[in-house]
Amino acid sequence: MLKIKSFVFLFFITNAAYPVAKFFIEETSAVLTRPLVQKSYAFNPQRLLLLNSFSPSKRLFHTSRVMSSPRNEGKRVPEKKSILVLSNKEYSQIKFNEHLENERLVYITTKNNLLNIPSSLKSRYLEIYGVEDYFQTGEVEFLGSAINEKHPIGHIVIDSEFDILRAAKLRELLRIPGQTYKSAMAFRDKMVMRNYIEKAGLKVAEGKAIDNVSDLIQFSHTVGFPFILKPRRGWGSEDVVLVDSREKLNEILSSKMFNASHDNALLAEKFIKGDMYFVEGVILDKKIIFSWPSRYLGTCLDLVDGKSLGSYILKPGIMADRLIRYAEKVLKALPIYKNTGFHLELFHTPEDEFIFCEIASRIGGGRINEAYKSRFHVDLRKLFIQMQADIVPNRSFKVEMPETEEIIGFVLFSSPKGPRSTFNGLKDNLSPQFAWMEQFYLDVKKGDVSSAKGLKSPFASAVIHASTEEEFQERVKTITDWVNTNTVWS
Asked: Domains (ranges, CATH) in the chain?
């Protein structure tokens, strides 16, 4: 009886161990013959759950290679931690491999963007993933958590407002240094943001959190028209509405903007008359190492209405100094992370008061980075990305004010035909040729459909140089007229 039991036991052990041994033999052979980079993946939770499976045919991740040197031949050398990059933007817009040279990068983007990454650059990444739905699901967070098991993550780098909360929460989950969720919320939720600013004694527009229709009706009775209605956690002026009459209010109330769950998370603010400015800057080791203001020509709502939006960088002077000092007060009021960028927007009223609008813990969009790079010879976006990874080459970095008094700024164009219009190209395939225009960017291709929703929807843009503010405004009008005349829409 004992012999039979022993035979059964040995038979079981032999048959159970064989698949495991076979797997590791195949894995070792595969590691020596295949490239390290994972070239393309769409999200598949079932495959991710098989991360630790012994089945080679179902495995998702490559096995890590053993690093060796002549002195330490065959011994495992600890690898430095990876950097997880999250971005929904086209790869051509931000080339992370150039900003984060010699780093171990893992990249999560959209499935469509994944297809546009040149094959020659894929080898620069440990892994690249394309997810089906970047915005509405938990695919990115799920992948990030699983990736950490294979390539322990040291930092998470983002470039979009959309990823700020997601990245902060993932950092806390994985115990990674960087902007905390509390800090991220202060820069993403406009009601939380307002509370910090008001406590610091700085002026904000009269406002109210709007969670349901009754809140909005009450606010309209209290403040009157006009007022602004916007998502508390929106960005780029998307879904921002100017409510300037009872008819407009009735239109909103009869739309699908509200639901019966009373969880709409909107913010209503009294409309402020005045000029709009923004201050762009970066903070390194808790110190503001760069901060400089610009003035908007028009407002971000102009893009929603299908108009152009411009801005220019201020010359040194009293107004620039006042705006820089104001930015310092705002930043002091907020739970800001030690290394970050910021984009502050504010109003300057006819009564010579500054009224806070909003602030983001990132570099501004549009062509802000391109204009500032031309003016100050510093790439703020590159610096922001490097700061998140804590690899700033020069920590004593300082931006010098150029001696030139030249005015530099940009202009964004949205479809003159309004939302849901189709771009049919430029007349005669022309492009604008002006000596004072540094660069013209066409961000759509023939057949693309435009939607004038805000800063995320311009179809073209330009960086412009001028000698005076008046000349800059004239040139904005000139290029705007050219674009409206020479672009074909249907």
From this structure: 1-28 (no CATH), 45-177 (3.40.50.20), 206-270 (3.30.1490.20), 275-489 (3.30.470.20)
Three-class SS of residue 284? Answer: strand
DSSP code per residue over 435-467: TTEEEEEE---TTPEE---STT--SEEEEEEES
Is a pLDDT exceeding 80 seen at residue 259?
no
Cα torsion 80, 86, 89, 93 to 10°: value is -20
Within 10 Å of residue 335's Cβ, how many Cβ atoms? Answer: 13
Rg (CA), the chain: 27
Describe the chain by its helix, strand, coil percentages, rounded to 5: 35, 25, 40
Tell me how far CA of residue 352 lies from CA of 164, 206, 273, 275, 355, in angstroms.
33, 18, 11, 10, 10
225 within 8 A of 243, measured Cβ to Cβ: yes
> In what helix (H) or strand (E) does residue 432 lie, and over which residues does it extend?
none
What is the tens place of the pLDDT at every residue in 172-196?
999 999 999 999 999 999 999 999 9
For the stretch 50-102, pLDDT in tens is: 333 222 222 233 323 333 334 444 555 567 899 999 999 887 677 888 899 88
Q: Which residues contact 429 (CB under 8 A, 6 or more apart)?
A: none
Burial per residue of 464-480, b for 16 or more beta-carbon CB atoms within 10 angstroms, e otherwise = bbbeeeeebbebbeebb
Token look-up 């959190």 returns: 209
